[in-house]
Amino acid sequence: MMRPLKEIPVSQLMIGSVLAQPVTLPNGVKLLEAGTELTEGYIKKIRKMGIKTVVVIDEQEEKPQRPRPAVQVHDRSEPVQKVYHTLSHLANSDKVRGWMSVVIEARFVHVFESILEELVRHEFLLGQLADVYVKDPFLFDHSINVAVLSGMLGTVKQYDRHKLYELVFGAFLFDCGMLDVPAELIKRNRPLTPEEKKVLEYHTAAGYNKLVKREDVPKRSALCALQHHERYNGSGYPHKLKKGEIHEYAQIVAIADVYHAMISPRYHRKPYTPAEASEYLAAAGNYFFDLELVKLFLTHISIYPVASKVMLSNGQIGVVSSVHSGLAHRPVVTVIQEADGSVVPFPYKVDLQENLDVVIVNRLSG
Fold first, then answer.
1. Tens digits of residue pLDDT in 296-311
2. Does 313 lie in the same domain as 295?
3. How far is residue 32 CA from its own chain's centroid?
4. Residue 143: which region, alpha, beta or left (left: phi > 0; alpha: psi -120 to 50)?
C-alpha cells in the first residue's frame, strides 16, 4: 500500500515530520535521505540551502494521533496568538528599548530580533508559553521579562549568536516547571508549609525533565530550568551547587529572575523599587550571585527604563529621557513638576550623572 505523501512549503515544516523523498540540492548532491525524521537542525539546514518545498509523509494518516496537551489546541488558539504577537513585537518594543543602555542597543536588537524570528516558529516553545499564560498571566509576563534581561546580560558578556540563542531559549522556559504546581499554591499569600515548599521547589526538576528529553531544545538551555534557584554560596536548590558548578546561563537567569520578581507586584506583597532591588543584588554579589555578573547587570541594564516617571530626592518629578551606558542608575531626567507641586511650563533636563547630589527615590505609575 502506497503511503500518503504531501508536498509542503519549507516554511510549514514541523519537527518530527518524515521525508517521503530525498532532499536534493540543485547541483544534484543529496542533502537528506528519504525516511529522515526532521529535527530543528535539519529544518534550519533545508531553509539555509534555499529549498522551497519538500515531500513528506502525510502524518495525519500515517502516524497515530499523539496524546493531547493539557490545554487543547482549539482552546489555546487565543493564548498561542498572544505569545506569537508578544514575541514577534518584542525586539522593538518599549519594554526592550526601555531596559537598554546605549552600549547594549548597538549589538543587541538585531541579534535578538533574529532569534525571536526563529523562536516564533518553535511549536513547543510557543505551546509552553501559551500554557504558562493560561495558568498565570503574571508568570507569563515574568518569563518574557526574564528572557529580555538575560539576553541583554548575555550580550554584555559578548555571547555569539549560538550561545545567545541557547540562553534566551532557556530563559523563556526557565519556569515551565511551574505548570505542574497547583495554581492556589502559586498565589498563596502566606508562608508555605514544609510540604508546600517541597512541592514548589520541585518545579526546577520538573521543568528540566520536560526540556532535556526533547531534541528541539538545546541541552544547556534546559539547565536554566534546573539551576535557576541554585546560589553561589551553595544555599540554593535542588542540588546545593556552588560557584562554578552552576552553569553561567542559569546564573544569568537567576539574576534576571530575582531582579524582575522584586520590582513586580506579587500576590503577597507590593513591588520593591528598582533602587531597592539593585541594592539587594549588589549586596548579594559573591554570596548568592557571581559578583562580576551582578556588576555587569547593574552597569549596563537600565533600572529606570526610558519613559519611566520618577520622583527625585529634591522633590521634583520627571520622566527618564535617556540612559547612560556606564551609570544606568543615573539617567537623564526631564523635569515636569517642581518640588512645590507646580507644573513646569517648559520641561528641562537634569543629568543625574552630573548632579550627584540628586538621586531617584521612587518610580511612579502613570
1. 998 888 778 778 899 9
2. no
3. 33
4. alpha
Residue 214 Rama label (left phi>0; alpha psi -120 to 50; beta): beta
pLDDT digits over 106-119, tens only?
678 889 999 999 99
Place of cell 515551565: 176
Number of residues that make up the chain: 366
Cis peptide before 238 (omega within 30 of 0): yes
How far is the C-alpha of 112 from the C-alpha of 124, rounded, in Å? 19
The parent domain of residue 96 ranges over 77-300
Separation of alpha carbons 174 and 166, rounded Å = 12
Same domain for 200 and 346, yes or no, is no
Question: What pLDDT shows up at residue 127?
Answer: 94
pLDDT at 354 over 80: yes
Quote the cell numbers at residue 126.
Answer: 510557543
> Do 200 and 338 lie in a common domain?
no
Asked whether the CA dihedral 64, 41, 211, 267 is positive or negative, the reply is negative
